[in-house]
């Protein structure tokens, strides 16, 4: 039960953090979510070409290109080896978060994969490019897949999520 509370806490924390970012909603074709870079292209590497998360749930693909980050947790913060959290989205409904004990290139178990406010689960992540440092700078890219549980419903409905990420900070 503690694992479920931990996942719920992460979802709620990210939801509150991301909901503080208010953007005017652009109009795009149905079943497409695209979040343009803040400030019309913004600096600091947060451009569409340097930070992207794409995921598919129930046949609907979502591409996040704004507010996409990765956070490095040291072994002291997340024993024994540390971890990396990949997150993005400009609103609570398109929220995405992945937490795994990533230590370099390879395949790792994803402790948490959260999509929106009601889909939480776990899975695997394969890292194909890795040069992340303790101050959350560098590059990380790869793919992920997992099984999510709809916590807003019966808690038993499972959905498959697949996707990829490429973040340069």
From TrEMBL:
Alphabetized UniProt keyword annotations: Signal
Signal peptide: 1-19
Protein name (Swiss-Prot/TrEMBL): Uncharacterized protein
């Amino acid at each position: 039960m503690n694992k479920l509370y931990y996942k719920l806490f992460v979802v709620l924390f990210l939801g509150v953090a991301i909901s503080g970012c208010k953007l005017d909603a652009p109009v795009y074709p149905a079943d497409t979510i695209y979040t343009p870079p803040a400030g019309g292209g913004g600096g600091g590497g947060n451009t569409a070409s340097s930070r992207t998360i794409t995921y598919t749930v129930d046949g609907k693909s979502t591409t996040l290109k704004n507010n996409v980050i990765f956070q490095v947790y040291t072994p002291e913060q997340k024993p024994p080896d540390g971890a990396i959290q990949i997150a993005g989205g400009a609103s609570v409904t398109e929220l995405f978060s992945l937490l795994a004990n990533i230590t370099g290139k390879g395949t790792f178990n994803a402790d948490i994969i959260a999509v929106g406010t009601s889909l939480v689960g776990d899975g695997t992540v394969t890292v194909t490019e890795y040069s992340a440092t303790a101050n959350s700078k560098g590059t990380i890219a790869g793919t992920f897949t997992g099984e999510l549980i709809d916590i807003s419903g019966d808690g038993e409905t499972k959905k498959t999520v697949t996707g990829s990420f490429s973040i340069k900070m």
